[in-house]
Fold:
Amino acid sequence: MLGTYSYHEIFRKTVVAFGTLFNNIELRRSTEVMKVPLAYGPKQKFLARLDQNPDPTNKRVQITLPRISFEINGISYDPTRKVSPTQKIRFKKDNDENKNVYMPVPYNVSFELAIISKNQEDGLQILEQILPFFQPHYNLPVKILPDVDEVKDVPVTLTSVDYEDTYEGEFASRRAIIYTLQFTCKTYLYGPVTDAKIIKKVVTDYYTDTNVNRAPREVRYQTTPTSLQDRDGVVLTTLSAATDADDNLIAVADASNISKLTNIYIDTELVRVSKKSGNNLTVIRGHEGTAAAAHASGANVYAITEADHDLLDSDDDFGFGELKSEFTDLKKRNPISGADEAI
Structure:
């Protein structure tokens, strides 16, 4: 199971989406309006940059505050949002096929956001542009899984706000006012996306030996899905006479390719042949729950064959073909190869 490659860039999308919440914060003074710089990284990195001696010939280094930085500081599983691990989500691949993915796993991504400013006024301006939107959470729309055309709301919860006012060295030296905001982003992780596969056969073996590892199968039940209508469009013959809904004897133009216990399909009715005499068929009408109906002379007659069963889709109505077998050869079925092997 582990090692199956899948990468949906969910953490990357979560980081980018979280950052976009704060990329339009403005600072307004009497003579200017400036956009507050936003960068990913720890606040210590920017504080260390402030401690460096500025170059008086480079004016850009003097305009370093205020600024906002953020980073991931933890990832944890969230058991309160757990869903069934065996349930799958099915979505459309194209007009004929679907894809599957297991239900997502809930994880919390913790973020630390730091507002670094030189004075209280700048810091409070930035803070008041953030706090009113978290009560205490803000729903962030994110397209998590690219294969599914769905935008999921990811709650971002503000958990705490801390304040720090620091001076380095003497009182008149550089000052840094830092507001540290802690957030929890409740996202989901998806595993590999696989093509939907249809179960076409179920095999159940019974045995009486209590040693399950070496017990030979004695009775086997095998079940396969069977089509309730024609799907390959191959016409077998036609009706040579009209039939009513309650007629159990029908006549066809050529019954040479029809045998006892064959399922045939006429219009929208499934009919089971119980006896054949020449071109006359004794049948069971309305087989497998289909509605018995009158049919006109010349109506096409289709045989339900393996070709029709192979064209079944998971959304189709279908019946079941059952086969019971008994064994005395002391063999056991290999579930990988599907062959019966000697113990």
